[in-house]
């Protein structure tokens, strides 16, 4: 698998997992605090996926900027710049959403935490199962030499 394929799979599986979390949290939030709980859960799941979905995208962008070299400044600028942007957006969203009366802050917080943890586990599982080679351009004994 290539890095792009792994990142795309992480985005897709993360979307499925976050959608399940959104449905479960919205149902629980609606039962606990009606419309405000449901809205808090849906906003929390969307925010969790949007922020964490930027990481695979930044890796794909960085790979293109660095022309496949993870040690290039373009790769680091893409990934670290996106992480900084995510941090600023997260803080702005938390401060803005914390003052809103149309959603339940507790349900919002718990849904964001659940989405973050689930997406991190999803990314870990996708990368572990990717069967990405550790080295490239190596000829092992018994293999045909590469041209």
From the structure above, extract its key features:
147 residues; mainly alpha; 3 helices
Q: How would you describe this structure to a colleague?
A:
- There is one protein chain.
- With 147 residues, this protein is mainly alpha-helical.
- It has one domain.
- Helix content is 77%, strand content 0%.
- The chain contains three helices and no strands.
- α1 crosses α2 (73-98) and α1 crosses α3.
- The mean pLDDT is 88.
Question: How would you sum up this structure in a few lines?
Answer:
Helices cover 77% and strands 0% of the residues. It is an all-alpha fold and 147 residues long. The radius of gyration is 19 Å and the shape is elongated.
List low-confidence stretches. none
Category by helix and strand content: mainly alpha
**Average pLDDT score:** 88
Rg calculated over all Cα atoms: 19 Å
The number of helices is 3
- Please state roughly what percent of the residues sit in beta strands, choosing from under 5%, 5-15%, 15-25%, 25-35%, 35-45% or over 45%: under 5%
Cα-to-Cα separation, first versus last residue: 21 Å
Number of domains: 1
Topology overview:
Elements: H1 3-65, H2 73-98, H3 105-128
């Amino acid at each position: 698998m290539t890095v792009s394929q792994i990142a795309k799979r992480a985005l897709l599986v993360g979307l499925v997992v976050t959608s399940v979390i959104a449905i479960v949290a919205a149902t629980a939030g609606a039962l606990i605090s009606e419309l405000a709980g449901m809205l808090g859960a849906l906003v929390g799941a969307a925010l969790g996926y949007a922020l964490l979905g930027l990481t695979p995208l930044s890796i794909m962008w960085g790979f293109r900027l660095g022309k496949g070299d993870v040690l290039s400044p373009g790769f680091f600028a893409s990934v670290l710049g996106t992480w900084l942007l995510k941090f600023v957006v997260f803080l702005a969203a938390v401060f803005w959403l914390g003052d809103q009366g149309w959603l339940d802050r507790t349900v919002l917080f718990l849904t964001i935490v659940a989405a973050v943890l689930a997406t991190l586990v999803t990314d870990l599982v996708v990368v572990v199962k990717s069967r990405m080679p550790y080295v490239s351009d190596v000829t092992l004994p018994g293999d045909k030499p590469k041209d």
